[in-house]
Amino acid sequence: MPLRTCCSSSLPSNSVFPLSLDVVVGERRRAGMSGFGEIIASAVGKQIASKLGELVTEEATLQWRFREDVDVMVDKMQDLEAVWRDADDKLRRRGGDGEAVRRWLTKFKSVAYDVEDVLDDLEATELLKKSQPKLKLFFSWNNQILQRVTMPHKLKNLRGEIEKIGKEGHDLNLVRNQERAEGSRNNETFVGSSDEGLKSGVVGRDMEKDKIIRLLLNYDANAREDISIVPIVGLGGLGKSTLAESVFVLDKMANNFEVRAWVHVSKEFDLGKIGRAILKSINSSINLDNCSLQVLQENLKKELAGRRYLIVLDDLWEEDGDKLERLKQMLQHGCKGSRVIVTTRNQSVVNKMNTGVLANQRKICPVPNSDQINLCVLSTDDCWEVMKQTTFGPDDDKSNLEEIGRKIAEKCGGVPLVAIALGQVMSEVRTVEAWQKIRDTNIDLGHRDHKDTLERLMLSYYYMKLEFKMCFAYLAAFPKGFVIGSDRLIQQWKALGYIHGGDEGKRCINYLMGMSFLQISKSSAIRSSPVHANAPRELTMHDLVHDLATIILGHECLVLNATEPRSRKKAKRRYCRHAQLINYQNQYKVFNDLPGNIRSLHVRHSEKQLLPQKAFSRTKYIRVLDLSGSLVVGQSTPRKKLLPSSTIQLKLLRYLDASTLPITSLPKSFHTLQNMETLILSNCSLATLSNSICSLSKLSYLDLAGNARLSKLPDKFNLLRKLIFLNMSSCSKLTKLPDKFSLECLEHLNLSGCHELKNLPQDFGNLQNLRFLNLSDCYKISVLPESFCLLNHLKDLNLSDCRALILLPECFGDLSELESLNLTSCPRLARLPESVCKMTNLKCLNLSYCLGILELPSSVGDLNLQILDISAGALRHLPDSISEMASLTQFVVTSGHPRVFGEAQEIKKRLKLPGRTVHRVCQRPSGSNSIVELAHVNCRELLIGSLQCVEKLKDAETVKLRHKSCVRQLALHWNKRYMNASLKRKMIANECSAESILERLIPARNLEQFMIQGYTSKGFPNWMSHISSHLPSVTYLSLFDLGACDNLPPFGQLPNLRSLYLQKIPNVTKIGKEFYGEGGTCTKLRLLQLKSMDNLVEWWTTLSGKEDGEFLIPNLHNLELKDCPKLKFLPYPPRSMFWFLDNSNEALVGPRLGFWELSSSSLPCRMGIKNCLFQPGKWRRLEQFPTLEEFSLTSCLGLRALRDVIRCFTSLKKLSLMSLEDLEILPDWLRHLTSLQVLVIKDCRNLRILPASMGNLTALRVLMLLECKGLDTLPQWLGQLSSLRELHIRDCPNITCFPDSIQNLTALEELYLSGSSLLVRRSRRENAYKVSHIRKVIFEPEEEPNEEQGQEESQEAWMDRLLKIDGENPWRRREEREELEEASMDRLSKKYGEGPSRHREERQELKESWMDRLWKKYGEGLLRHREEREELEEVRMDRLLKLFGGNARLIEEREELEEASMDRLSKRYQKGPSRHREEREELEV
C-alpha cells in the first residue's frame, strides 16, 4: 500500500513523494512534517527489516549483501531528504544551477517512486502467497521462486541509484535545510460551499452584475436582434465564470427563461458535446447514444422552438468563423428574447461571432460593444476584501494583520482567483511571522503563458497544507473541463496513497474548494442540489488552476493520443506516472508505448472498441485503472465478454472502474487482485458474481448499480469485512441477499430499485456501522427483520415506494440516531409503531401518499421534527401534540381529508408557520385592479380567486408569478357564474380570456402543487405545451370545472407527477398519445382520480392504444373513477393496487387487463364498486383480480345474489356489502373464503338469513351487521367463529336474542349493540350470562364506534381510508365552505349590528354551532354530491333575496365580483370605519 505523501514543493520536480513501506508490515503511520527521509528510516529500518530478513534467509548467496543494501538505502534516503528543501529553495529563486537542481529533484522523486513500487510489489506477492496454494502459484505467471530471485537484485539496483543521486546532490552543493513550519492544524474549518465561492468571486463586480441582469431581463419586442449574445471578456482568473454563475443561479433567471443550460466549452471546440449538454439540460431522459450532429441539431430545433432560453457557453476559445456560425445555427431556434452568455479570454472570439449570415440578419448576434462586459483586475482593496472573507470570521481581530494582509493583497495582481486561494492558506497560519513569509516569498516560473497569474497561484500552492499537495497535483491527470464525482475522486486519491480514508478526502475537497482550486460543476448544480450536505458532488476546476497542476506534475503526466504516432513515440518517458489514453480505435500496439511505471491510466473517448488481452502486461504498477471511457471491453466471443486477461496481473491495482462495459462476468482469477480497494462495475451486464470477489480482503467500495441481470450475491459475501460502501441500486432481478450478511464496516448501502428483493437477512442488524440505507422501490419487502432495530447508528433511511411493506417493527424507535425517515408511497403500511415517538434525533419525516395510515401516534409531538409531510394521505385527524412541536419549520399538507387539512392550517397558525394566502380579484374604488397587489406578495401557498375580474392583461403580467420561487402551492380560480356583461364581452373578444390570463400567470419552476378551477377557455397557452420544462417539480395537479376545454396538455410528461385529479371537464372525450407528449411516461404517478367526466370515452395506456406499446402508467397505487360511465382504458386499465369504481360501468371492459405481467406487489389488493350496473359478462372481468384482499359492493341495484366470481378472491380478508337493497341470500360458497377476517353487512334490508356455511369462516375476527332489518335471528353456528374478536349489531330490530353458542366465543373481546331495543334489554337482563365473558360490552352508544364510521367511509369512497374521501380538490371544497360561512355571517351581522367583530367568542360559538348543524344535516358527503351543493346554493340565494330585497341579485353579483373590497361591505353592515383592517380580515376569512 502507498504511504502518505508529505512534501511542500511548488514545482513538478519537487512534489510530494508517495512511498509504500509501512503497509508491508500491516501498519499505517501518519506522515509528519519531517518528510520523506524519516518515513523511510522508520518504516524500512524498524519494521520491514524483519520481513526482508525472511527473504534473505532463503537467498543464501545474497543474504549479507541484501541486509547491507537495505541499511545503505535507509541512510542515503535520510540524507537526501535533509537536502531536498535546499534544492527546493534554490529552484524557486531561479539560481544559476536552476536546471541542474530541477533534474536532480526529478531523479530523486523517480527513485522514490521506484522504491515504493518494489516494496509494494513485495507486499502484493506476500498477500498472494497467503491467498493461493503453493502449487498453483508455482505454475502461474506469479511464480514465487522467480519473484524471490529477482527481488534482491532490484533492491541492489535501487541502492545504486540512490547513491548516485546522493553524489550528484553533493556536486550541486546542496546542504541540509530546516523544514518550513506551518501553523496549527487544530480546529480546522475549510470553506467548502459554492455559495461562499460565489460571494467572494463577485466582490467589486456589482456594476457588471447589474448590467448583465438588465441585458438578460429587459425584453423589448421591437429589438433588432431575436437572440442576443452577452459576452464577458477578461483574462483568466478574473472571475468571468463566477460572475456568469452568480447571475445564472438567480431565481428570476429560472423563472424568466423556460430553458437554462450551462456548457463548459474550453479549447476543445466540439459542437456535438455542446449540443448534447444543452439537450441533457432540457430533457435529461432523452437518449443521445450514437446521435449524429444532424440528429442533435434536429432535436435542438424541436426542443428550443418557441421557448425562451438562457445558455451559458463558458470558456469559449474558438475563433474559426465557420465553426462559430454552425454554433449559432444550432442555437437560432429559440423564441425572441432568448439569451446566450459567452465567457472568453479573447475579444477576437466576440468579434467573430458578430460576423456571418445569422448575425447580419439579426437573428443571433452579440449585443453592441457598449453593452459588452469587459472585466478588469480588481483593486487592492477589493482583493483584500475577498481575502478577509476567507481568512477571518465576523468577530476576529484583524488589527495586527491588516497591514501585512494588504501587502499580500498587492501580490494578487487584482486576480480574484489568486485572492481566494491565498486567503485560504492565510487562514491556516494567522500569525505575523507566517504572513511575513508569504509576503516575502517570490516565485519565478520563467517564460510561459499567463506567467504572472500562475506565479501568484503557485505562491498559494507553496503554502498549501502538505498533506493535500499531491491530491491537488493529481488533478492534472484529468483533461481540462473534467467533471468527476467527489466520492470517486476520494477513492482514487486513496488508491494512490495520498490519503487514508473518506473523511480525510472530504477534508481535502473542502480545503481545495475553499481555495477555489476545486469547484462544484455548474451543470450539476443546475440540475439538482444535494439533499444532504455530505452527499457526493460533481467537481471540476478552473482552467488556470489546471495549468498550475500540470506545471506541478510536469513529466509525470502524459496524454497518449492513439491516432497521433508522434505522441506515441514520445510516450516512453522514464518519469511518467499518470497517463490518459484517448481516441483508441483498436490500435493494439499503442499499449506497447505506455510507460511501464505508470500508476494511473484513464481510457477516454474510445467508444465501442475492444482492448487486447495483453493491454496491461507491461504496466504492472498501475494502481488506478479507469476504463469507463471505452464502451466495449473484452474478448471477441459475442456471448461472453470479459475484462482483458492482463488485468489480473496488476497486483498493485487498487481502483478499477469498468462501468458501462457490457462484461457478463469477472475472470476466474479475479481474486489475485488482493490490493483491490475500489471496484466500480455499475451498468454492466453482469449475470453472476463469482465467489472469487469475496477473497478481496481489502475491498472497501463496491458499486454494482444498474446490473439488471444480477440475481444474487455470492454466499461468502460476508468475507468482505472491510467493505464500507455497497451500491446495488437498480439490480432489478436481485431476489435475495446472502443469509450471512455481517459486514461490520459497512456504512452506506443502496438497494433502491431491487424490485424482486423479498426480504432482508435475519442478521441484518449486525451492520452496526450502517449510516445510510436506501430501500426505495423494493416492491416485495413486506416486513423488516426484528434485528433491524439494532442499527443504532443509522441516520438516513429511505423506504419510499415499498409497496408491500405492511408494518414496521415495534422496536423501531430504537433507531435513536435516525435523522431522516422517508415512507412516501407505502400504501399498505397500516400504522407507525408508538416507539417512533422516542426518536428524538429525527428531523425529517415523510408520510406522503401513505394510503393505509389512518392515524398517527398520539405522542408524535414529542419528536423534534423540522419537516413533516403528510400530503395525499388517509389520516382522519391529527394528534393535538403536533401543535406543540416548536421545532417544526415546514408542515406539508397538499391534499387529504378536509378535517385534516383544516387541522393542519390551525396548527400552522399556532406554530406561526407560513399558511395559505387567499386573494380574490376585484376592482378597487380607485379604478385599479386588485391583482396588481400580488406583485409584492411572497408566500408558500397562494390562491388567486375570481380571475374573471381581470380586465387588463397587463395587470396579470404585473404579478410576475414566475419570479415567486417561494410559492410551492398555487390555485387559480375563475367564477364564470358572476361575470358581468362587460367581462363577458371582453372574453368573447378574446381580450381577457382565461387563456390570455393564464399565459401571463406562468408559475415558478419549483412549484409543487398546481390547481385550476373554472377555467373558461377552450385551449391552453403555449407554455403548457411544454409544461414539463416549466414545472418540472409539480407533484400534484388538479383541474376542476373546465367547461370549454376539449383537449389536455401533455401532463404525462411531468417527471415528478404523483397525483392527478380531473373533474367536470365535459368536452374531453379522449385522452390519447398527446397526453404523454414525446417520451412521457407516468412512472411516478400514484393517484389518479377522475370524477364527473361524463363524456370521456377513451384513455390510452400505451402510445397507440394497443397492446404492442410500452405501458405508460405502470406504478399506480390508487385509481378512483366516479361518474365516468363511458370510460374505457385501452388496451387495458392502469396497473393500480387500489380500485374504486362509482357509476363507471365500462372501466373493466377490454380484452385483457394486463395484470398477468405484474409482480405480486403490484397486483390489485383493494377494490370498491358502487352504483355500477354490470351485466353478467362484465362481472366475469373480476376473475382477473384473484389477489384482492379487500372488496366492497355498495348500491348495486338488481343484485339479488352475490356473483360467483367473488369466490375466486381466495386471498380476501375483508368483505363489505352495503346498501344492496335487492340482496336476498348469501351463497354457500362463502365458506371457501377461508382468509376472511372482516365481514360487514349494512343496509341489506331484504336479507333474511345468514347461511350455515359461514360457520366455516374460522379466521373471521370482526363481524358487523348494520341496518339489516330483514334479519330475524342469529344462527347457532355463530359459536363456531373461533377467532371472532369484535361483534357489532346496529338497527337490526328483528334480532331479539343471542344464541347460546355465543358463550363458545372465548376470543370475543368487544360487543357493540344499538338500535335493537329488545336484544339490548335481554342482553342486560335475562340473557346477561350469555355475554358476561366478553370484556367490553357497549349498549346503545350516543355515537356508533369507529368501526361503523369506517364502514360508512368504505361505502362513500374507500378514499377516507385510502385517501379517497379527499378525491376532490381541498382548495375547492374549502372555497365552498367559505361561501356557506358567508351566508352565516349575513345573519351574524344582522343580529349583532355594529359590533360583530368585537364579539369574537360569541361569533365563533355561533359559527361552530351553525357548522355542526350543517354537517349533521348533510353528512360528510355534503361536498361530494353535486346536487346537494346546488340545493344549498339555492337556499343561500333565497336567504339573500329575502334579506336584501329586489336588488339582492345585483348586490350579490357585485359583492361576489368585489369580494376583497371590505370597505363597502363594512359600510353596508355598519361595522365601523375601514381602518379596522384586522377585524375585516377576520370576517373575510
Determine the fraction of residues in helical runs and give it as a percent range: 25-40%
Let me know the average pLDDT.
78
Query: Regarding CATH, which class of the domain at 1178-1360?
Result: Alpha Beta
Question: What is the makeup of the main sheet?
Answer: 17 strands, parallel
Q: Please give the count of helices.
A: 41
Shape: globular
What's the multimeric state? single chain
Percentage of residues in strands: 5-15%
Report, as a whole number of angstroms, the end-to-end distance: 71 Å
- By CATH, the architecture of the domain at 1178-1360 is named Alpha-Beta Horseshoe
Number of strands: 44
Describe this structure in words.
The two termini are 71 Å apart. The longest helix is centred in the first third of the chain and has 34 residues, at 98-131. 46% of the residues are buried. Among the domains are: 12-171, no CATH class; 205-374, P-loop containing nucleotide triphosphate hydrolases (Rossmann fold), CATH 3.40.50; 395-550, no CATH class; 1178-1360, Leucine-rich repeat, LRR (right-handed beta-alpha superhelix); 1370-1484, no CATH class. Helix 2 crosses helix 5 and helix 16 (402-410) packs parallel to helix 18. The protein is built from 41 helices and 44 strands. It is globular, with a radius of gyration of 38 Å. It is an alpha/beta fold and 1485 residues long. The model is unreliable at 1-65, 134-141, 179-197, 526-534, 632-639, 1342-1408, 1414-1427 and 1443-1485 (pLDDT under 50). Helix 30 (1027-1030) links the parallel strand 28 and strand 29. The chain has a 17-stranded parallel beta sheet, with helices on both faces.
